Amino acid sequence: MKSKKLRVGIIGTGGIANAHLKSYLRMGDEVEIVGGSDIVPGKAREFFDNAGLTDVQAFDSNDELLSLGLDAVSICTYNSTHAECTIAAIEAGAHVLCEKPMSVTLDDAITMYNCAKENNKILTIGFQPRYDPNMDLVREIVGSGALGEIYYIQTGGGRRRGIPGGTFVRKELAGVGALADIGCYSLDMVLSAIGYPKPLTVSAYASDRFGKNPKYFSDAKNFDVDDFSVALIRLEGDIALDFRMSWAMHMDSMGDTMFFGTDAGLKIKPAGVGTGWGGAWDGTIGPIYMYSDINGQLCETSIPLRTPSDDRFYGKVKAFCDAVATGGTAPIPTIESVYNQAIVDGIYRSSQMGKEVEILLPGL
User: Residue 30 domain-assigned?
Assistant: First the structure.
């Protein structure tokens, strides 16, 4: 880490911004928190004052914050403003860590990608599960070639009851629901393990039966996103991806994550099944098993788990800051996040149109 402190700012001072702030503070002398902004008058000031940071500058305008000459910015706004805030920060000369999902539409994601590339800035998206040691374990096993050629993957996550509320359930703010909230995590988990091949087509179904029912969600009248989705995604390399995601359902699990290979198979069971809120791929995984033939015998091998990390969020913020400080590249390559968003966009379009859709990536 270079000796000069990184000058960082935070755009959007809602709930998730607290985790960013905590991570930056943990880095001590490596980082100077210069300021923050929020479009709600006084919210940014209250955010920093509550953290005891009364000397940190707070603004009701993003432009005022970005005029301070920042090295790096965390984008912690609601989904529909990720693109505009990210582009504004990059054009003001800052590198960007943007919360997931990357954006609401694929067009926005491509525009963000091109803006970062043209301005030679880092743009990384906040998939903190990447920094869990057991996610590393899955990637190492798959990447080792032990499974042979991967041809089919099943993944997803299901909360029996877990609709978050707030900005998450309003289309004008979130764009999509469970699909963007936790679905992008499960997509990133499996796609990062196989090198993020390009998505080609999507055939999907989505519904909102629980979110719109006051029996299951208290703010049903304002719910206008998905709470359930399934999709079959065709990937480059002749790979089929079977995706399932739910915020609420009458079932204990949406199933295990599984990699089918020509030499072996890998099963990752979801953590928290039966707890109501658990069972979704939001950064923790359960037991891992490998299935293979040894000397003509069908074998099942339990893979020992690594000690779970409580520092996943800090890991993503630290990796971002290290990349900025050393002139490195995005810790999570930006193009991978574009592909992730392309699938989310494709699932949404396919479910709305009721048919399979092609994924096109113009302008990359």
Answer: yes
Answer yes or no: is 289 within a domain. yes
Distance separating alpha carbons of residues 225 and 6, to the nearest angstrom: 38
Structure tokens at 289: 């098993």
What is the distance between the alpha carbons of residues 325 and 6, in angstroms, rounded to a whole number? 7
CA distance 33 to 199: 38
**Residue-wise pLDDT tens for the chain (364 aa)?**
445 899 999 999 999 999 999 999 999 999 999 999 999 999 999 999 999 999 999 999 999 999 999 999 999 999 999 999 999 999 999 999 999 999 999 999 999 999 999 999 999 999 999 999 999 999 999 999 999 999 999 998 888 999 998 899 999 999 999 988 999 999 999 999 999 999 999 999 999 999 999 999 999 999 999 999 999 999 999 999 999 999 999 998 888 999 999 999 999 998 877 677 766 666 578 899 999 999 999 999 999 999 877 789 999 999 999 999 999 999 999 999 999 999 999 999 999 999 999 999 988 8
Total domains in the fold of the chain: 2
> What is the domain extent for residue 165?
130-308+343-358
The tally of CA atoms less than 13 A away on the side-chain side of residue 204 is 30
| Pair (121, 137) in one structural domain | no
